[in-house]
Design goal:
five-stranded antiparallel β-sheet; about 35% helix; Penicillin-binding protein 2a (Domain 2); 2 domains; about 600 residues; alpha+beta
Length: about 600
Amino acid sequence: MKDAYINRKYVIIALIGLASIVLIVRLFRIQVIETSYRLSADNNVLRYVTQYPARGLILDRNGKMLVSNQAAYDIMVIPAQTSKLDTTEFCNILGITKEIFRERLKAAIKYQKKAPSIFLKQVSAETYARFQEKMFMYSGFYVQARTLRKYTKPIGAHILGYVSEVDDNIVKREAYYKPGDYIGKSGIEEAYEEDIRGKKGVKIFLVDVYSRLKGLYEEGRRDSDAVQGKNITSSIDMDLQEYGELLMKNKSGSIVAIEPQTGEVLALVSSPNFDPGLLVGRIRSENFTKLQADSLEPLFNRALMASYPPGSTFKPIVGLIGLQENVISPSTLFACHNGYLTVACHTHESPLNLEGAIKNSCNAYFCQVFRRVLENPVYPSVPLAYIKWRSYVTEFGFGNTLGTDFVNELPGSVPERTYYDRLHNNTNWKALNILSLAIGQGELGMTPLQMANMTAAIANRGYYITPHIVKSVGESSVINDRFTEKHKIDIDSVNFEYIVNGMEMAVNEGGTAAFSALKDIVMCGKTGTAQNPHGKDHSVFIAFAPKYNPKIAIAVYVENAGFGATYAAPVASLIIEKYLKGQISNKGLEDYILNLILPKK
């Protein structure tokens, strides 16, 4: 019996000893090895301050600065650490009212009482300096450094985009963002957000009961540095962009210029526009509301989103399809008696071959080409021929988005055959029912970007590269494969030469754009007048130069301005000369456009 008692005694002692060892080991891990537990327990005396990276710079194609950064400061608050304070002095330092103070503190408490949140964002360096001197008096409040965007010149707002605070949906959807963070909106800022935003860091500070910093926790060993975002080299020529915006001042419309051989966008102007600096800092929300309410719609990017009829600038496409379908040859003649059936035309020499029809922009010629394509006996019916005609048109990038690196590009409109089936309530409609398409009217709708892309395809004699706004990201000169791929059009390259010759004649041999011919530069162009159901017709012009080895292709829309030769063609001519020669020889033409004020509607 005594032996049994002794055995039980040792068993109990052994169990107690084993439990003690386990407990000691566990405490050692918690207190010495697993410092994260201690870190969690010390949260009431530690402050985690996010280190926000500077966003990457945005440069033009020649390395000129478009967008940089400037310092700003957010006043942060941890409600649980605040104490009674002199609100009058506090509000005077920050330049706010007591009502705002109460509203902001209430919102912070509602968000999370023990976590930091923004009390007042983007205060100036002067306000920050005043607050820093007295911050020890206001426990629970501290300052967090930020950066804001800074623009070299008040240009390129629709290209560059802007930066704004994230909303709840973004915070829920993307783990990277927290309330109070900023994100790129529209333009390059949005399209390249993941590259340009950088990587956040964190610093952990020891603070005393008065919320005063006492130094880095563990001498900064648990800190991580912020990593600046990658710099973006855009394809934009800053000087050309500025000049284009100057030419479109007091006018509504758009300019898109592309380098044909690369698809790089050299300039993209949407007018009316606005100073991108208006959407920076604490004034951003107020200014954004004003811009939204502006009846002239300066926030609307006409270059990517406005769908206009192409007018006579579409005739080269009709001619190319006629050649490819073998329903005409370059020498085919058509007479014009001031129009064709219900379609009127201006007075010019007659009859004309294809090049002459381009030169003189003859409506009758292209109506007859269009009718021959759709009534081609190779196809069993006009609707089936239309399907083939439409497939050619869409190869130029019409009727779909082009797949650019712009985030708000719209597709325009090239109706499907089924649209006309429904419109005419049958499947046996005729070419004459849709004759207006022959001269770029009717249901056709193209964006200025698409028109510039079409012009680049003609300049390249049968292919285009997807337009894009960025040349390189960070240190890498490699861009997305889709911006190097050639989109070949199923039309023989030889056919493009006849169209190019006609466009050269339109400018340089007394054609419809003779007023805008350039000295020492062979520009090939096509005028257009796009019908506008809401008012005066739009002035349209497409062009490229030089004729061989072209360096620039352009589309210009000037709203409510009438004939393409009168306004759009001079604008394009000035842009092309500015880009190729760096200066303007025809100062009279320049003054004419600069001093021109056109109605907005």
